[in-house]
Amino acid sequence: MATERTLSIIKPDATRRNLTGKINAKFEEAGLRIVAQKRIHLSPAQAGQFYIVHKDRPFYGELVEFMASEPVVVQVLEGDNAIATNREVMGATNPADAAAGTIRKEFALSVGENSVHGSDAPETAREEIAFFFSGLELVG
Ligand code: RTP
Ligand code: MG
């Protein structure tokens, strides 16, 4: 298995409810190491740029407004097959479809306010990590 890095975001619905520690515990229990982490408040323009791939989807406006509504915690997770491992721990996008024990099953409020983001492929992981972190901030 290859060591990978992925970009994770703890979304506003979760930071608001003080769930950062519980969510981080799930990542660490799954063998993912948090190699960088910071709390930021995205502007609507920054949130819109981050999710630009979804610009033509009907939920784009709502998603951007939500992501800029309150602070988020952005982080880089490292581990064996980190991208897939992280998405497994996150669970399905819609919490109604998420498996027992996943973050979204336990904590998500709805398909939109679903507590976490995770990169979906190596190329997007590289882009998304570079969007938030400089090389100096990444301590392996
Ligand atoms: P993410 O990118 O946040 O890790 O989530 P994902 O891959 O599981 O889902 P994706 O299809 O990339 O959608 C991005 C985010 O948009 C919101 N969404 N809302 N109202 C809706 O039907 C709807 N569908 C998606 C969610 O916050 C989702 O995580
Ligand atoms: Mg996605």
TrEMBL record:
It is found in: Cytoplasm. GO terms for biological process: CTP biosynthetic process; GTP biosynthetic process; UTP biosynthetic process. NCBIfam families: PRK00668.1. The gene is ndk. It holds the Pfam family NDK. Homotetramer. Belongs to the NDK family. CDD domains: NDPk_I. GO terms for molecular function: ATP binding; metal ion binding; nucleoside diphosphate kinase activity. InterPro entries: NDK-like_dom, NDK-like_dom_sf, Nucleoside_diP_kinase, Nucleoside_diP_kinase_AS. It catalyses: a ribonucleoside 5'-diphosphate + ATP = a ribonucleoside 5'-triphosphate + ADP; a 2'-deoxyribonucleoside 5'-diphosphate + ATP = a 2'-deoxyribonucleoside 5'-triphosphate + ADP. Its EC number is 2.7.4.6. Signal peptide: none annotated. Residues 3-140 form the Nucleoside diphosphate kinase-like domain. ATP binds at residues 11, 59, 87, 93, 104, 114. This is Nucleoside diphosphate kinase.
